[in-house]
């Protein structure tokens, strides 16, 4: 064999072996590095997992503490609410116990009063029997007396009986009035005072004239116009009388119709501000103002409905209600008066267990006839009742408008409520004014009624006619008969006079002994 070939084969074999060894060594090194890298990655993953776990545990602890705090706050709040409710229940329980105790006391008082009443009834029966025996004895005595006829004896007995019964009647009136006053006066006063205090209305006084201020006297001449054409056109368009005299800085308008007067006042104010005063401009401004007033009337009616809490009213009645804003009665604005009557009637109705909504509706519409009484014949109660019935109102509302002045037989309870509320509204201080002649006439009528009773010496109407002071003769009356006279005077005032509110009758009876030392 060729030595060169052999040498190549040997070197080739050695190279192959060396290559295999080198490859195996490199594979070993790679495997070792891979294991090391795997261990490093596993260790890093473990560290990251432990850190993440610590973070999660920390966040869970914080969330747990927060939830625990919120739960504790809720528990504290709930505990406070429960405590407050428990206190309220205890207070209600105490109040119920007090009310029960008051009821028991009232029952005992009623039983006592019933027992006393029964005793007084028995006493009255015994006194009646004694009176009968005395009358029989006196009758027998009179029959034995000579010179007296049967008719004379009967007249004598009737006179004595009348005097004794008058004293007994006076005593009974005092007793019954005192007992009734103790039970009913306090309750009635509470109801009325509560109703009046819970609604306080403004009262405005208006007249039949309105005035407009002007800047200078030159404006008066412009208002009058050449040969008076401007003022004539203004009076024709508005239907009012314009009074321009020597009074500086003012123009007066007079009319019985407050709406016309208001339209004229606003129109003249606009004319003065505009400066263009001529017949065409006057007619244009008056027409525009009339439209504005019509809108204002509608809004006033709607506002009154909203204030009174009344719903579903016919549009015509809403308009008439708004017109009451420009109507006065004894200087009292009728719309304000109607709102006040509505509120007072509703409050009283709710206090005594009646329907407050119906009472408020009746009170609001009771004077609706005053908005149309110049357009139809008859008084405002009749006109108002016809309007309300024509526009679909119920019998309670119609009858309240018809009978709130006690001119007819009362058939509906709400009419009584409206009449009472109407009297309260009209009689409260500052609500109304009356003329001096009418005031003096009412005082004279009041005093003349009391002077017509036997035993009355002097009569004085005081407190603007709200109280009647009567001086009785001590010789012609007794304490019991004086009480009877006072009662009869009060009833006579109710029957013969018409007045708002009430009249207090105070009767004084005294004995005076006068001696002169010389």
What would you say this structure looks like, in words?
Helix content is 69%, strand content 7%. It has a 3-stranded antiparallel beta sheet, covered by helices on one side. Strands 6-7-8 form a 3-stranded mixed beta sheet, with helices on one face. A two-stranded antiparallel sheet has the order 4-5. It is built from 14 helices and 8 strands. With 518 residues, it is mainly alpha-helical. Among the domains are: 268-433, Hypothetical protein af1432, CATH 1.10.3210; 436-509, Cation efflux protein, cytoplasmic domain (Alpha-Beta Plaits). Helix 2 crosses helix 8 (334-351), helix 2 (150-197) packs across helix 14 (479-496) and helix 10 runs antiparallel to helix 11 (395-403).
Summed over residues and divided by their number, the pLDDT gives a mean of 78
What amount of the residues lies in strands? 5-15%
Contiguous helical run count = 14
Order of helices and strands: HHEHHEEHHHEEHHHHHHEEHE
Structural class: mainly alpha
State the end-to-end CA separation.
202 Å
CATH fold-level assignment of the domain at 268-433: Hypothetical protein af1432
Q: What is the 3D form?
A: elongated
Instruction: Identify the strand order in the major beta sheet.
Output: 1-3-2
Q: How would a crystallographer describe the biggest sheet?
A: 3 strands, antiparallel
What is the CA-atom radius of gyration, in angstroms? 50 Å
Count all strands and give the number.
8
Portion of residues in helices?
55-70%
Which stretches are low in confidence, meaning pLDDT under 50 for 5 or more residues running?
A: 196-206
What is the level 1 CATH name of the domain at 268-433? Answer: Mainly Alpha
Name of the CATH architecture of the domain at 268-433? Orthogonal Bundle
